[in-house]
Design goal:
Helix content is about 50%, strand content about 15%. The protein is α/β, with parallel strands linked by helices and about 200 residues long. Keywords: DNA-binding.
């Protein structure tokens, strides 16, 4: 009897890197890539269609981040497990990922054999976290931001004005100003751009 393969969806916004990961993992006899996508939104549709065992995703991507994708799948009690492969080595990112239900977290400079072994470990019900990050997560400062804080800081980073942010969130500009004031205070920042830098540096954004 042929052993069932571990079915994967790969999510990476850089086309060359995505194609390389797909090609290399497809060489592993027990792994099967059933789809790949350039962003979290497209990946979610693909996961819904193919019901893979594991989705291997970056964090920062258009439409929906890897952590947001993991949170969405966790809320829906999806059977698909999530693994992050990223350049972000800050403990704050790892802690947010684990809180979102992510089962694996590796850095992009890891060898492909390590990624394949991590996939097998997660598929077997375990966790696979880069050794250089596993201990640091216990010392990470608590994330003071909520989803609303993150949303407005990301839009500010993208250069959107209070008016534009207010329209996107169906709120008044005054409410947005109040939200920014609260977020700046939470982070001990000088202004909203400084707040964004602090949040990004700690892996909270």
């Amino acid at each position: 009897m042929t052993e069932r393969k571990i079915r994967l969806v790969i999510v990476e916004d850089q086309a060359m890197l995505r194609e390389a990961i797909v090609t290399l993992l497809s060489l592993e006899g027990d792994l099967q890539v059933v789809g790949h996508a350039p962003d979290g939104q497209a990946a979610y549709a693909m996961i819904t269609e193919h019901q893979p065992d594991i989705v291997v995703t970056d964090i920062e991507m258009p439409q929906m981040s890897g952590i947001d994708l993991a949170e969405k799948l966790r809320r829906e009690k999806a059977r698909t497990q999530v693994m992050i492969v990223t350049t972000f080595s800050r403990a704050g990112y790892l802690k947010r990922a684990l809180d979102a239900g992510v089962r694996g977290y590796l850095l992009k400079d890891s060898p492909i054999t390590q990624l394949a072994d991590a996939i097998r470990k997660v598929a077997a019900g375990g966790r696979a976290v880069a050794k250089e990050l596993a201990d640091a997560v216990w010392d990470a400062a608590p994330d003071p931001l909520n989803d609303r804080d993150r949303a407005i800081l990301r839009m500010a980073e993208a250069g959107r004005s209070n008016q534009e942010i207010a329209e996107a969130l169906s709120l008044s500009p005054g409410t947005i100003r109040n939200y920014f004031s609260e977020t700046v205070q939470k982070l001990g920042a000088r202004n909203r751009m400084d707040a964004g830098r602090i949040a990004r540096r700690n892996g909270w954004l």
